[in-house]
Design brief:
By secondary structure, the chain is mainly α. It has a domain of about 170 residues: MetI-like fold, CATH 1.10.3720. The chain contains 11 helices and no strands. InterPro entries: Bact_Polyamine_Transport, MetI-like, MetI-like_sf. Belongs to the binding-protein-dependent transport system permease family. CysTW subfamily.
């Protein structure tokens, strides 16, 4: 006679349904929280876009009076505002190019090589990012005064390049973390020189990081107020003009220009994302 031993029933862990229930219960809360945070972030931008169409006839553009496209047709009707916008755009473009050219080799060296003083360079880059803008602005102002450099357009450019280089270097260094050095070594084994291997293998892999750092430089430069106010002299940029005009009333053209800058940034960022995805595919 054969006897069968029945193992005692064990409690099954409540990993399936119970966990699903917990996730279901958490999702509405996280979703509502996420949408509230996004609404809080996007509300000022929405107000700026809306009041660019406000049919106001006074300097105070805080009361909705009707819809109009007048301010888009007369975008450059205020000469001082137009010149301030041109200053901001040209400064941001120059700073983006210079900071990208200077910061990319630094990020490449930090991500690829181990050398004496590497930790100090890391500390210096992160210190420049973590330092308050008022401290950087005051330090640069003191430097220009000691050297006898008159403040103006080019001191703004130098100041912006100084605080933008660390962002490019760190972004490129992060991109280098996923770089496979054997690909460049294979290109060298196949007869490519150092410059050819860098241009055809390394640089295309770094382009998303370089582009991200360049976009970050442009965004930081075009809207900087604190450091610019210390080193601008008589040069007026878009943020400086808007702040000075806020005492008497901000014209609707400011909202239109801000909307166009915002939309332009979205287009460039979207193009960068699409370019990165195509390269990854």
């Amino acid at each position: 006679m054969t006897t069968h031993t029945v193992a005692p029933a064990q409690d099954t862990p409540t990993t399936g349904p119970a966990r699903g229930v917990r996730r279901t219960r958490r999702r509405p809360t996280l979703t509502v929280y996420t949408w509230l945070v996004l609404a809080w972030l996007l509300l000022p931008i929405a107000v700026m876009i809306l009041f660019g169409f406000n049919d106001t006839h006074s300097k105070v553009n805080f009361t909705w009076q009707g819809f109009t496209l007048t301010w888009y047709r007369h975008l450059f009707a205020i000469p001082n505002l137009t010149s301030a916008l041109v200053n901001s755009l040209t400064v941001a473009l120059v700073v983006t190019v210079v900071a990208t050219l200077l910061g990319t080799p630094i990020g490449l060296a930090l991500g690829r090589h181990r050398f004496r003083g590497r930790g100090s360079v890391d500390l210096l880059l992160f210190a420049a990012i973590a330092a308050p803008e008022i401290a950087l602005g005051a330090a640069l102002l003191s430097l220009f005064i000691v050297l006898g450099v008159p403040r103006g357009y080019w001191t703004v450019v130098i100041a912006h390049v100084a605080f933008c280089i660390p962002y490019v270097a760190i972004t490129v260094r992060a991109r280098m973390a996923g770089h496979d050095p054997t690909l460049e070594e294979a290109a060298r084994d196949l007869g490519a020189g150092p410059w050819t291997a860098f241009r055809l293998v390394t640089l295309p892999m770094l382009l998303p990081g370089v582009a991200s750092g360049a976009l970050l430089c442009f965004a930081l430069s075009i809207d900087d107020y604190v450091i610019t106010s210390f080193n601008a002299g008589r040069t007026v940029t878009f943020p400086l003009w808007v702040y000075s005009a806020s005492r008497t009333g901000v014209p609707p053209q400011v909202n239109v220009m801000g909307t166009l800058i915002f939309v332009g940034g979205l287009v460039i960022a979207g193009a960068n994302v699409l370019f990165s995805r195509r390269r990854a595919a």
